[in-house]
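User: I've been trying to design a sequence by hand for this structure and keep getting stuck. Would you show me what you'd pick, starting by listing the structure so we're on the same page?

Assistant: Good idea, let's start from the same input. This is the structure you sent:
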């Protein structure tokens, strides 16, 4: 900068995050990683005489450049303690697009064509025709200019432009006769103005007035005729391709683009001009729109054009030619300010048949002139433009790209500030950190994650809502559409959505079609286009090879549906219903090139959870898929009897369930953690081969629902990779379980199910069928005020023992206490200023002295409407502040937990050492007696060592065992113990680091001494007014809880659980719910039959029933591979119904 110094970037690095994800959630902090950059400041000496630079000094320094929020393993950002999701944006792809208004802009109904070049970063370029067929350009949607002004700014003049856009006819003048150079492309379709005679044979090839056909043109060419005589009247009104100048006098007869007149013809004959050129414009294949544009353009030279463009875009500042030229260069041709991206360059190359390198990310002269030519040709040929809703023209901007754009904006602001400082400060004494202020960068990132329309508070009601939120695509947001301006076309389902965007799942209301979901198997490619998988088909044979295709690649493919009948991977039918270019066609088998991978490829995850989806009306399916996301996790989850098979994948991929990371064995299980030893060391990070999983216990979610994990494995059990170790919220045995399997009657009941009301059996309430747990957090801060510090204490003025009954000595509520509205959770007193004392206060002060009057009660109490059990309390104290008993007790418990984990890791490490030593020692002869802990002899002198003996030797004595050939193995033993000591030290250091960080104290807001968080769990039972829904959009409100004895009942006397209105089915056309009921009742009855047989220990019958139900090949293992005891146990489990 300014020739005296330059600041260069060398490298960047990330440090470790200060807190873990869980700690950030507890403390209300952001999970982020500090960014450190190394920069080099070079100062120069400049020779004033020659202007030559020489390096005076180089300083290199590490500078902190703020922090960058990190995405967790679940695809979430933790910002200020809450989970946020950055929604992917669906926007128009960069590149070149041609459209027309369909005659809507003007009363005449004439189509007005336009083109637009959209970069990722930089100015938009619009070309558009007006009603008079004049072509204009707009830069950044400003006032329009004739397109020729832009082209002249690129260095063209009027004559070059006309020759670029039009063919030229050469006219020869000889002895007052005019003839036209013969070019088949301009002659075909024209009429002869005079008889055409073959000069060699004298034969008349064509009579006057005859239209020149392709055959006649061929004959003329064959006859070798170079010029065709024409009537001069035919030339009148045609336009000159260049200036006509008399050779002797230099007098200008006619200007370029001027119409030829009789006066001009006379002047040509008089000046004896042998040849001149005219533009070929026939008004049919070529229109005169571009010529008109050239005619109206007042700009004559490149300099004028550049100044005119500058004036339009910067009206306030007067330009000089140099400033205008630099401004125009910066506008489209400088990588710092203009970026098409690789996608944009690829699309422009494809559209205009260019072979510009893909890394040329700015515009070129050729891009602009060819795009204008294409637009003129499109208008002249009245062709259709591009379909902007085609998924080949829309791309997804993922989180990385959105954050990158924000980061760039922050860096640009920082660059400006650095340049300013460089010009103001003394260069010699400067250090890099004096110049760099990271605030603009961190502010840009904070602003994006905190306030951007695309950074949203995560919908965490249940695992499905979490998955759906992360797979959401939005057309709204910065750089996208706005609700008000979006028309029907953008919102509509497009043929290219098939397998890419779900046609069902979208919100109702103003956002319909603007916010959509990614289809089940879809993925986003590196360029941001959505791809969907297909199986390759060649001559009837369907291969196992899966190929992902984008919407553009899918064109011209003939795609068969997944339901096609196959036999040995061969298509059976001769004619198939298939899709080609968005149309449904019937084709012979040999034309099919691709095949869908699955029937649910079409829809999103939520929609694929709906059984009998094909029997539901689309509007109801939409409601069904949206309402599944609103299901609160129940206390007793139950997976659906009638499922679609997608449930287990949602539970697994949502991160709600805990999955095994490899093959191994469960070492230890309790309610809070699972310890697994994996067969392959390194799976869990250390060579211990052990992984300790801490389960989520009563975690509060963003929607105040409760996420809780329960172990499914037992100690000693073998696990495999991907096996579910623990169930999460709304999951049962690793399957998504959003609701309950209940029996339903479709019948009216005394008006209680009028207008979608639902009648409920009171038994569901007693059995806690639809009871859910909700967690709320209440926090209080003890601040350092002007009058003194606030104190968290049990000693509160004017409060009786009854109110303090749940508080411990530190003034914090005890865990397990049942609290209701108004109960005290944390006792806190605040110093108050000197005020006039009331008589009561005077009395108190007289009795108790000064203490009682100078503080007021500011305790945390349970707010109205909340009732529940205290499940946790967390105390955070500022560094250097003495901790109370409760904080120390919490810390002790945490350290105890960490020590337990550390001991488990060390124990596993020692086991690994034993195994390694066993490989060395087994079979060797002992040179001493070997004893165990109790001094019992394990092995006598001279006997051979066995694995059993090595297992019983004390670990500390293992290394010192003396055996034959010990010297030979000394190095190997040393290596084993050296590795053990290194790893043991690493483990101890890691845990010690965590403990030290805990003991240091917490980072709290300025002025806050202590923060206490109380977690209260509330049980919510089903009550009148609650909303209930099925998976088919059949929603309703609970109208009455009816005693069991009054409910409608079956023949065996068992009562139904819900009574729904039968009128809710025909008009809504969601017949899927009726089919689900049929299949559900069959599943329930089959389960009851199997359970009865299992109770009777009838093994043969149970096996037979299972074989009848699960007749498919893949279920043979279930029926044949189980022992009799296992089969009976399985039969008992199926009492509530068989899963279908």
């Amino acid at each position: 900068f300014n020739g005296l110094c330059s600041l260069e970037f060398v490298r960047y690095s990330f440090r470790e995050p200060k807190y873990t994800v869980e700690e950030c959630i507890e403390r209300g902090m952001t999970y982020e990683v500090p960014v450190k950059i190394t920069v080099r400041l070079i100062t120069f000496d400049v020779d004033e005489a020659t202007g030559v630079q020489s390096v005076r000094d180089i300083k290199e320094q590490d500078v902190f450049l703020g922090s960058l929020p990190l995405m967790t393993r679940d695809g979430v950002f933790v910002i200020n303690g809450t989970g946020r999701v950055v929604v992917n944006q669906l926007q128009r792809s960069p590149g070149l697009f041609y459209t027309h208004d369909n005659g809507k802009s003007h009363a005449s109904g004439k189509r007005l064509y336009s083109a637009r070049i959209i970069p990722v970063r930089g100015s938009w370029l619009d070309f558009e025709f007006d009603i008079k067929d004049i072509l204009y350009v707009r830069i950044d949607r400003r006032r329009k200019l004739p397109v020729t002004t832009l082209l002249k700014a690129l260095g063209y003049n009027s004559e070059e432009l006309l020759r670029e856009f039009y063919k030229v006819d050469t006219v020869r003048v000889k002895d007052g006769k005019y003839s036209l150079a013969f070019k088949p492309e301009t002659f075909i379709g024209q009429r002869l103005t005079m008889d055409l005679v073959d000069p060699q044979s004298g034969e008349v090839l064509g009579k006057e007035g005859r239209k020149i056909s392709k055959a006649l043109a061929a004959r003329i060419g064959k006859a070798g005729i170079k010029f065709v005589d024409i009537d001069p009247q035919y030339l009148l009104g045609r336009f000159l391709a260049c200036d006509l100048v008399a050779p002797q006098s230099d007098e200008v007869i006619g200007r370029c683009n001027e119409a030829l007149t009789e006066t001009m013809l006379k002047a040509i004959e008089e000046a004896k001009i042998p040849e001149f050129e005219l533009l070929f414009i026939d008004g049919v294949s070529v229109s005169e729109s571009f010529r008109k544009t050239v005619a109206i353009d007042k700009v004559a030279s490149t300099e004028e054009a550049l100044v005119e463009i500058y004036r339009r875009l910067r009206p306030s500042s007067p330009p000089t030619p140099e400033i205008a030229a630099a401004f125009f260069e910066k506008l489209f041709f400088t990588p710092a300010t203009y970026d098409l991206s690789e996608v944009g360059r690829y699309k422009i190359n494809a559209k205009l048949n260019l072979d510009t390198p893909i890394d040329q990310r700015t515009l070129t002269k050729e891009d602009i002139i060819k795009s204008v030519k294409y637009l003129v040709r499109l208008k002249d040929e009245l062709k259709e433009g591009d379909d902007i809703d085609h998924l080949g023209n829309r791309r997804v901007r993922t989180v990385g790209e959105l954050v990158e754009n924000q980061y760039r904006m922050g860096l640009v602001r920082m660059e400006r500030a650095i340049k300013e400082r460089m010009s103001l400060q003394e260069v010699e004494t400067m250090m890099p950190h004096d110049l760099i202020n990271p605030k603009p960068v961190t502010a840009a990132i904070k602003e994006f994650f905190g306030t951007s329309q695309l950074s949203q508070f995560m919908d965490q009601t249940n695992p499905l809502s979490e998955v759906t939120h992360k797979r959401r695509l939005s057309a709204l947001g910065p750089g996208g559409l706005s609700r008000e301006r979006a028309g029907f076309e953008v919102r509509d389902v497009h043929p290219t959505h098939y397998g890419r965007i779900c046609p069902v799942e979208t919100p109702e209301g103003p956002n319909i079609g603007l916010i959509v979901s990614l289809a089940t198997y879809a993925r986003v490619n590196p360029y941001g286009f959505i791809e969907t998988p297909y199986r390759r088909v060649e001559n009837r044979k369907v291969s196992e090879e899966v190929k992902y295709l984008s919407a553009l690649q899918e064109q011209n493919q003939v795609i068969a549906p997944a339901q096609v009948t196959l036999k040995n991977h061969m298509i059976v039918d001769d004619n198939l219903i298939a899709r080609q270019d968005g149309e449904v066609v019937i084709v012979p088998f040999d034309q099919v090139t691709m095949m869908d991978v699955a029937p649910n490829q079409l829809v999103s995850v939520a929609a694929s959870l709906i059984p009998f989806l094909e029997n539901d009306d689309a509007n109801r399916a939409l409601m069904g898929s949206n309402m599944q996301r609103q299901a609160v996790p129940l206390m007793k989850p139950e997976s659906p009897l009638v499922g679609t098979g997608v449930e287990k994948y949602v539970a697994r991929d949502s991160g709600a369930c805990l999955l095994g990371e490899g093959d191994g064995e469960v070492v230890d299980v309790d309610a809070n953690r699972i310890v697994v030893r994996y067969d392959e060391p390194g799976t869990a990070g250390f060579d211990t081969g052990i992984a300790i999983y801490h389960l989520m216990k009563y975690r509060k979610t963003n929607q105040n629902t409760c996420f809780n994990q329960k172990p499914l494995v037992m100690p000693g059990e073998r696990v495999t990779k991907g096996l579910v170790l623990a169930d999460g919220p709304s999951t049962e045995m690793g399957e998504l379980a959003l609701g309950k399997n209940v029996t339903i009657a479709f019948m009216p009941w005394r008006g209680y199910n009028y207008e979608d009301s639902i009648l409920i059996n009171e038994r569901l309430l007693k059995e806690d069928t639809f009871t859910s747990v909700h967690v709320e957090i209440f926090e209080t801060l003890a601040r350092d005020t002007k009058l003194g510090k606030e104190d968290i204490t049990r000693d509160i003025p004017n409060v009786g023992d009854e109110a303090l009954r749940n508080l411990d000595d530190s003034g914090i509520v005890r865990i397990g206490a049942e609290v209701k509205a108004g109960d005290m959770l944390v006792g806190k007193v605040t110093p108050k200023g000197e005020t006039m004392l009331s008589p009561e206060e005077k009395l108190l002060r007289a009795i108790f002295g000064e203490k009682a009057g100078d503080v007021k009660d500011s305790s945390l109490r349970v707010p109205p409407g909340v009732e529940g059990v205290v499940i946790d309390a967390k105390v955070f104290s500022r560094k250097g502040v003495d901790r109370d008993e409760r904080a120390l007790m919490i810390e002790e418990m945490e350290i105890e937990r960490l020590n337990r984990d550390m001991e488990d890791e060390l124990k596993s490490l020692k086991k690994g050492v034993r195994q390694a030593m066993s490989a060395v020692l087994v079979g060797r002869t002992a040179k001493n007696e070997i004893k165990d802990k109790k001094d019992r002899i394990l092995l006598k002198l001279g006997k051979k060592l066995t694995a059993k003996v090595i297992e019983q030797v004390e670990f500390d004595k293992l290394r010192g065992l003396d055996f034959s050939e010990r010297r030979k193995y000394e190095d190997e033993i040393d290596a084993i113990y050296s590795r053990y000591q290194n790893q043991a030290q690493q483990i101890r250091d890691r845990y010690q680091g965590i403990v030290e960080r805990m003991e240091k104290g917490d980072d709290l807001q300025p002025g806050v001494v202590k923060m206490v968080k109380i977690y209260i769990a509330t049980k919510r039972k089903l009550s009148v007014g609650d909303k209930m829904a099925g998976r088919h959009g059949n929603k309703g409100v609970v109208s009455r809880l009816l005693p069991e004895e009054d409910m409608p009942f079956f023949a065996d006397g068992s009562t139904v659980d819900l009574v729904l209105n039968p009128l809710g089915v025909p008009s809504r056309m969601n017949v899927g719910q009726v089919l689900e009921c049929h299949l559900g009742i069959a599943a329930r009855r089959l389960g009851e039959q199997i359970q009865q047989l299992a109770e009777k220990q009838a093994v043969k019958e149970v096996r037979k029933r299972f074989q009848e139900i699960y007749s498919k090949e893949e279920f043979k293992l279930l029926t044949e591979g189980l022992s009799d005891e296992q089969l009976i146990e399985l039969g008992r489990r199926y009492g509530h119904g068989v899963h279908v």
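That's my pick for every position. To get oriented when you compare it with your attempt: Residues 885-921 form the longest helix (37 residues). The chain has a mean pLDDT of 87.
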